[in-house]
């Protein structure tokens, strides 16, 4: 049995969505687009699903899955406009998106604060310290610069709403960050910048942490899936898939969603470092 997963990165995704490719026009049976945080998990789930289908030797189950990496806003917009079978969003739906699409949570993820592996003077930060760095450029030890994600990023939406000043003000309420804050598009770009600069603080999906960077404690709590699940680690958000309606999904797309939500699929979620929703 043929099994094929087509993974398209951010730059290619921009050109794909720019020309308005509709679901199925690329030749894929299932098209998934959106969040660069959700995409790595989605690719693993797709590979496992293909392996499962391949084991039954029934060629009628041939499925080609295309995963297009962009951001949460694009994933939702693509779903609204029929450009995918379902979108990926690393945040809840916004008020102006509700009604046109529905969402289903497939995992819970932590937002990890990351630094260069050489950083030793900072191991634990508070929300107020992080707020002051982003809002006013106040250094945290040797961390004198920071990275934000692009507009449309679900990770940024979560981070900006969860990081608060000592008085309870959210980063999301700021009109402009401090001059020491730069913007990067995509999880990979944030990791690249942090791994190359010991003065920079960034944030990414907990499931995307690897040995090129290291995480900081937040309010005294390690960034682990176990601590996200217990609620002790406060920087967390949902991983959602987004679509117009159950009835609008193709039979093949429905079957893939059923696999993701099954005990088998959710075991993969936990194996990949996220928190299961069942």
What does this structure look like?
The chain has helices at residues 10-18, 39-54, 72-80, 127-136, 154-162, 187-195, 225-230, 251-261, 263-271, and strands at residues 3-8, 30-35, 63-70, 86-89, 102-115, 124-125, 145-149, 181-184, 200-205, 214-215, 217-218, 236-243. The chain has 278 residues and is of the alpha/beta class. Strands 1, 2, 3, 4, 5, 7, 8, 9, 10 and 12 form a 10-stranded mixed β-sheet that branches. Strands 6-11 form a two-stranded parallel sheet. β7, α5 and β8 form a beta-alpha-beta unit. The protein is globular.
Keywords:
alpha/beta, 12 strands, ten-stranded mixed sheet, two-stranded parallel sheet, 24% strand, 278 residues
Model regions low in confidence, pLDDT < 50 over at least 5 residues: 10-22
Helix coverage percent of residues?
Answer: 25-40%
Give a short account of the largest sheet.
Answer: 10 strands, mixed
Question: How many separate helices?
Answer: 9
State the end-to-end CA separation.
Answer: 31 Å
Give the integer mean of the pLDDT values: 91
Question: Strand-and-helix sequence, N→C?
Answer: EHEHEHEEEHEHEHEEEHEHH
Radius of gyration: 19 Å
Label the overall shape. Answer: globular
The count of β-strands is 12
Overall SS class: alpha/beta
